[in-house]
């Protein structure tokens, strides 16, 4: 619980209380509603409302019944706050927890110039660990991290991002043409998570999912990298569930309002 400071500006506190009241109401409120719910005199409520109307944050919703609600400016302010939140900062505790639960290295990445760029990681303490330097870039179509994000894009954007065929390979299992990549992307959408089955590293098996922002657009992805030799069907299902839950938690913190990892 927050400790109340010794000095509080009563006017500022009332303004914030009114904004919270309006934002939490499922309908526009009358002046009497505001007075009763805030337990303040009608004259004070009137001054507050008129000031916020003048500043463009509150507006009259119904001139006949004289009801008030938040304006589009209030929405824009809230959206600006959400959009300025750092994905890395928000994701960090979640990927650390995912690392703790799986015992495997967890990566966070974003697309840049047709590659997946590694923004953060939470490493396992295994002797054999996947290596990816923060800030480094790898292929979208071979990594679990990249494939998770690719599948969140429309097919035409996938083709645009990958460019001309054949695509570069990292291992003999890497997919080199658009048909195979799109088929794999459709499977990712159906399952809710991507699989990199030794396509970037012959010793690694990676599972990833896309992360969305407040406009419901894919902006990043997270993945869990495990040794292929230790992967079982049961372990895959456990990790897949955890990574999708983690991606959804991060997306929710970023303002995502969808209900599943892939919206296409």
UniProtKB/TrEMBL annotation:
Organism of provenance: Leminorella grimontii
Alphabetized SMART domains for the sequence: HTH_ICLR
Annotated protein name in UniProt: HTH-type transcriptional repressor AllR
Pfam family, one: HTH_IclR
HTH iclR-type domain span: 9-72
GO MF term set: DNA binding; DNA-binding transcription factor activity
Cross-referenced InterPro entries: GAF-like_dom_sf, HTH_MetabolicPath_Reg, Tscrpt_reg_IclR_C, Tscrpt_reg_IclR_N, WH-like_DNA-bd_sf, WH_DNA-bd_sf
Gene3D superfamilies reported in the protein's UniProt record: 3.30.450.40, Winged helix-like DNA-binding domain superfamily/Winged helix DNA-binding domain
Gene Ontology terms: biological process: negative regulation of DNA-templated transcription
Domain IclR-ED: 73-256
Sorted UniProt keywords: DNA-binding, Transcription, Transcription regulation
């Amino acid at each position: 619980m927050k400790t109340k400071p010794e000095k509080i500006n009563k006017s500022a506190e009332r303004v914030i209380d009114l904004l919270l009241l309006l934002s939490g109401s499922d309908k526009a409120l009358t002046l009497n509603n505001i007075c009763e719910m805030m337990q303040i005199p009608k004259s004070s409520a009137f001054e507050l409302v008129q000031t916020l109307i003048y500043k463009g944050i509150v507006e009259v919703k119904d001139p006949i019944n004289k009801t008030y609600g938040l304006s589009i400016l209030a929405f824009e302010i809230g959206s600006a706050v959400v959009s300025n939140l750092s994905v890395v900062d928000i994701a960090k505790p979640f990927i650390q927890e995912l690392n703790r639960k799986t015992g495997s290295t967890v990566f966070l990445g974003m697309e840049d110039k047709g590659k997946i760029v590694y923004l953060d990681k939470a490493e396992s303490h295994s002797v054999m660990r996947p290596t990816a330097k923060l800030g480094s870039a790898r292929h979208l179509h071979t990594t679990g991290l990249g494939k998770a994000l690719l599948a969140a894009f429309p097919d035409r954007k996938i083709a645009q991002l990958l460019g001309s065929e054949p695509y570069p390979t990292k291992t003999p299992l890497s997919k080199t043409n658009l048909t195979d990549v799109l088929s794999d992307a459709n499977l990712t959408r159906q399952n809710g998570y991507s699989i990199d089955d030794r396509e970037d590293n012959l010793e690694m098996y990676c599972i990833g999912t896309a992360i969305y922002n407040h406009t419901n657009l894919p902006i990043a992805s997270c993945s869990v990298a495990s040794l292929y030799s230790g992967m079982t069907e049961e372990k895959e299902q456990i990790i897949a569930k955890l990574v999708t839950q983690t991606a959804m938690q991060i997306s929710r913190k970023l303002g995502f309002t969808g209900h599943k990892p892939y919206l296409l």
